[in-house]
């Protein structure tokens, strides 16, 4: 099981997984679409409590409205295969931790 916290408007480019992905929305609104590239016109909104099963190898993409928390469960290991790796934004580098004085 994995929980993801998504900032408002975060986008997840098209990808697929080698195992089934079971996703439940715990907070906010999660938008998901099927296909080989991000297409806003294909997004369907999942609200708190909604569940979706993406079968293994299903190409899909996502976005969200407001701060959103989703829970994903399934058989591991969890792996993401990006269809267009150049579309993936790397997370910000965390600020250096300063030692206590």
Tags for this entry?
0% helix; 101 residues; mainly beta; 7-stranded antiparallel beta sheet; 48% strand
- Main sheet record: 7 strands, antiparallel
Count, helices: 0
Overall morphology: globular
Percent strand: over 45%
Oligomer: single chain
Describe it.
The protein is mainly beta. It is globular. The protein has strands at 2-6, 11-16, 21-34, 44-46, 51-54, 60-73, 81-82. Strands 1, 2, 3, 4, 5, 6 and 7 form a seven-stranded antiparallel β-sheet that branches.
Outline the fold blueprint.
Blueprint: E1 2-6, E2 11-16, E3 21-34, E4 44-46, E5 51-54, E6 60-73, E7 81-82
Describe what is shown at a glance.
This protein has about 100 residues and is mostly beta strands.
């Amino acid at each position: 099981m994995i929980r993801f916290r998504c900032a408002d408007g975060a986008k997840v480019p098209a990808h697929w997984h080698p195992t089934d992905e079971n996703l439940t929305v715990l907070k906010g609104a999660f938008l998901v679409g099927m296909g080989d590239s991000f297409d806003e016109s294909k997004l369907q909104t999942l609200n708190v409590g909604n569940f979706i099963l993406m079968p293994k190898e299903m190409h899909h993409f996502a976005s969200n409205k407001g701060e959103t928390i989703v829970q994903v469960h399934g058989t591991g290991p969890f792996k993401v295969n990006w269809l267009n790796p150049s579309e993936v934004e790397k997370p910000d580098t965390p600020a250096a931790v300063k030692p206590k004085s």
